[in-house]
Amino acid sequence: MCPNNFYRRIMDEASNIVKVKFKYIMSIYGLCSEATAVVMEYMSNGSLNNLLASHTLMWPKKFQMIHEVSMGMNFLHSMKPPLLHLNLKTSNVLLDDHLHVKISDFGLIHWEEGMSKKLFMEHLTARGNISYIPPETFTQCPDPPGTTFDVYSFGIVMWEILTQQKPYAGCSVTTVLLQVSQGRRPCTEMIPEEKPRECDPMISLMQKCWDQDSRKRPLFSDIVIKTEALSEVLKIPGPIHCHRNGNKEQTSDYSWLVPPIHKMTLPEMPDISSDDQHAPSGILSLLSKKDFRSFRQSVKREHVCTLFSGEKSLLHYTVVSGDASSVKHVLSLDAEVNCTTARGYTPLIIAVLYRLHDIMSLLLDHGASATQGDEDQWTALHFAAQNGDDRAVRLLLDKGAAADTQEKTGWMPLHLACQNGHEAVARLLLSRLSEEAVGQKEEKRGKTGLHLASAYGYLNIAKLLLTKGADPNVIDATDSTALHLSAGEGHNRVVRLLLNGGASTDSVDSKGYTALHLAALKGHTGICRQLLSNGASPDSRTLQGWTPIHLAALRGHEATMVQLESQGGCVNVKGENGWTPLHLACHQGQSEVVATLLAAKAEPNVTEDPWLCADRKGSTAERGRQDTAGFFWGHSSGCGSEIKNAAEQQNSSDQEDSEASLHHLHRDLNSSADVADSQSELILLLTALRAADLKIAPRKSKPCSGAAGLQSPPVTYMHICETEVFSMGVFLLRPGASMPLHDHPDMNGNLRSC
């Protein structure tokens, strides 16, 4: 395929993909014309593949991620025709600041008519997809890939999330192909034994997804229902709770919405067989075998003083065993109750991590410190609050734990409870905190408990905090209030609560954004309505000069834009570089938004700032013109009817304004079918323009090749499309003017059609 045709095909595909917008689908903003790159939404937490390898996720979070991936895939498959991913894997599932998933790289692999299975397999294996390819792809099945292809890949992704392992690790491509073709799948025994009972139906669903017979695989419309039900049962917000590899540099890249991450290398029982039960290794072996009677008979005072790997003591291992009688016996041998591992973990912290409440009480009764922290100054209360263990929190508070204790970056237990949605824990902590402590900020990002609860949408916790005197207008390190965070995340009820609690709608963050800007940017129309009814200004500007209508137009949120306009928002307001909402909508190819703006009397003749034109390079600078909104229509297709409507709305007597209108509109004609569609649109356009007597005067311009005969005074023109590979001039005649036709390969057909 020649470079020009290849570029056209990519542009055509990209223009379709850009229009795909959904909460769990990656937003595509455009292509780089000078490099083979796609501009996508920034995902601060990278890929799910990397996260699974570096962190241990709690079960509720695993279920939530599986459900979100299923919703994203169901959206793609619900399109007409279904948009097949054909490249679904954990490295193409990205994570935002809140660890919600977004599916990327969809629509980039295609099955083309006449393509051989061998060539298709080469495309897949070149991307490292061998583990995600269903068996029918490399067997004698003649059918092209369909929706069941993605369902199979989703089954493998489910297994990766549940096990946090790589499928077919260490196997060659040939081995994987043989195993899959014979019906073998990744081992379900690798799923941890300590799993919730809801994991069994999730495993059953996973096995149906990777069924050898593609006809037996479920549809994503059914998968979504099942994953939602299972996710709801375990809906205890659970971000990352432990760090595996101890790489602290890695943790600094994670956003404030991820809790401070710690390496919790808990002491595990070595599987040691020893005939000498009185040796240290033999003592540990008895604990490992849960032979607690023999352990208590064999353990001596000298064993209590022995340090094992990682500076773990016998008391640490005995706590992990979970046998309170053995712990009591070791304590009776004068074991140091506050001894620490190399990472600063006390036996009490270990008991909290394992939720061993009887052993916690036993340790506290023997003098365990409820305020002692680990190497990062995390106390037992921090861990209990993070895990949502209200029984442990109550016990620790009653034994002297300080509710306002801070770890080294300023996080209090309340921050963790608010972030993770543990209402019972938050209630206990608030009963022991002063009003000043309730509003305490963590140091790195300056978030209060109210910021965290609002960002995650925990309404009841936000209510508790406001009742205890939390200030809704406190700002964090980016000058954001709780209202900014809840509005941006779409938490309607939390927004209402904050507004009733006195939150200001005029507060701006470090970029000049109000809560209304963020709600408009994300398309949260209901929240915009609430904010506007509470005094938010629809024409407030960011530091770049953007109003909420600009941002709604940029992202294609038509309903939001209508709401803003109905409440007094100006559709012709200029932002950075003199761009109006219409400029942005055209630039992004938002045809529905363009139509809505024009219906709201948006002026299509507004030009961008003159100084910007002087900085442009290439043909635009050579022509020395200013760009109207119409210039940007060429970066997408499907705006012909909006152009026609704009022309119909022009007043023929307003020639000075009309002179700039729709100047140098661009259209990409990427295929013969598109050309046919464009011809009919041009006929409509010219008919409308002539009916409106819209006169577009010639300006300084590079002449069109082959159009010399059309430069008589009665003729005005509009340059519809100009790209590196195709140029077409459309000439508009005043009523009664003659139109000489010339045999020009690019123009003749369209002119004759008109």
TrEMBL record:
Pfam families: Ank, Ank_2, PCO_ADO, PK_Tyr_Ser-Thr. GO terms for biological process: regulation of cell cycle process. InterPro entries: Ankyrin_rpt, Ankyrin_rpt-contain_sf, Kinase-like_dom_sf, PCO/ADO, Prot_kinase_dom, RmlC_Cupin_sf, Ser-Thr/Tyr_kinase_cat_dom. GO terms for molecular function: ATP binding; metal ion binding; oxidoreductase activity, acting on single donors with incorporation of molecular oxygen, incorporation of two atoms of oxygen; protein kinase activity. Keywords: ANK repeat, Iron, Metal-binding, Oxidoreductase, Repeat. One of its GO terms (cellular component) is cytoplasm. The keyword Cell wall biogenesis/degradation does not apply. Residues 1-230 form the Protein kinase domain. SUPFAM superfamilies: Ankyrin repeat (SSF48403), Protein kinase-like (PK-like) (SSF56112), RmlC-like cupins (SSF51182). Transmembrane segments: none annotated. ANK repeats lie at residues 343-375, 376-408, 409-432, 445-477, 478-510, 511-543, 544-576, 577-609. This is Protein kinase domain-containing protein. It comes from Pleuronectes platessa. The lineage of its organism: Eukaryota, Metazoa, Chordata, Craniata, Vertebrata.
